[in-house]
Each structure stands twice: as structure tokens, then as C-alpha cells.
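Narrative of activities, Objective 1.

The group set out to show that a structural description can be obtained from nothing but a protein's sequence at a throughput compatible with the screening campaign. Below is one input-output pair from the validation batch, recorded exactly as produced.
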Amino acid sequence: MKILRSLFRFVLFALLCFVLHSLWQVIIYRYIPPLYTWHMVGVWIEQGSVEYAWLPMDDISPWMGVAVIAAEDQKFPEHNGFDIEAIKEEIEKRRKGQGSRGASTISQQVSKNLFLWHGKNFFRKGLEAYYTVLIEMLWPKERILEVYLNIAQMGPDVFGVKKASEQYFKREAQDISIQQAALLAAVLPNPVRFSAAQPSSYINRRKNWIVQQSYQIGGKKILQNL
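Output recorded for this entry:
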């Protein structure tokens, strides 16, 4: 019994340390730009280089925020981190053996990309859900979107809209058009396989759909609801 009590206290202490550490992480990154993410480290190890630089939201074209919401998470302004309807649809598609993109929201993707490693095991998904709840509680929506636009992978070794706009369009991120923003958003599902520099016919069709959806969800006005 003494061993069990000691083990129980150790587990409680470890859990408390994890909770405090995670709260500290989330609070710090609400105000401070991350220097890197673990995914960036992994890409750097594999490829030997990473292109990444931070930009505040005011220096990013509003069309970029609109485009990723239109492409990735149209319920972003209103949900609390999880799109329940999309999750139900994903479960049904998997039950039927149909392919799908997944049901991750922008908030979930920030949690995964900023705090965790990439993978599909239940333990990592559980941590992703935990961090998603934290950032939704402690960050405003605008901060979640700002972090996403800066750390999302947009090419094999390119992270964030600043380096992507410079590399693919030879212009500053604040100057990109809706067409260019939609093109960057179009490759987000798989930025290693798809290319904004040499878009396939599929990516061009997806880009055009994102442009259409960007206007349909309200254009730049949707950012006022964050």
C-alpha cells in the first residue's frame, strides 16, 4: 500500500507539473512570437533548412486570413475549438471507408503545430484536444489566426505567410491579392505534395473555389467578427 500511495503521489505531482507547464506555454505564446515549432525542427533535420519569419497580423494581407478560414475552417469565428458537425461527418466517412481530409479546425492545427509533434495516435490527439481547449480559453480568435498564418507549413521548407509570399510571389505579405492568398491556402492540406510555385490543375481549381468561398463567407468583414 505504501508503494501504491507513493506512486499515486508521483503521478499527481507529474500531472500538476504538466498542467502548470502547459499553462505557462499557452500564456507566453499569447504575447510572444514562437522562435520555432517542433515541426520546423523536424523539417530542418530532414532537409537541412527552414524558411520562417514572424509577422504581426497588421502586416499580413487580410485576404490571407479570409482565405484560410474559407479553405480550412469556415466556422472558426463561432466555434470553441472543435467543429462537431465536421467531426460527425468524418466519423461517418471513415465508417463507410471513404477518404477524407479530416475535421481539424484552425485552433486544433495551431495546437498540433505549435506545441506537439505530428502523428495520428490517440495520445497525441488527446494532447491536441487539451491544448485546443487552453488556447480557446486564453487567446482571442485573432491571436489564434495570427499564429496559424505564421507557423503553417506552406512549402517543403517554407513556414508562414511572410516567407511564402516572398518566395512564391516576390512581394510582401501585406500586398498579396485574394488570388494569391487563395493559392497559398489551397496547398495547406499537403504543402510538400502540392506547390504554390507550380500549381497543378487541381490546386488551381481549389484556389478558384477558395476565392468564391472567401466572398461567400463575407470577405474581409469576417475578420471583424473574431
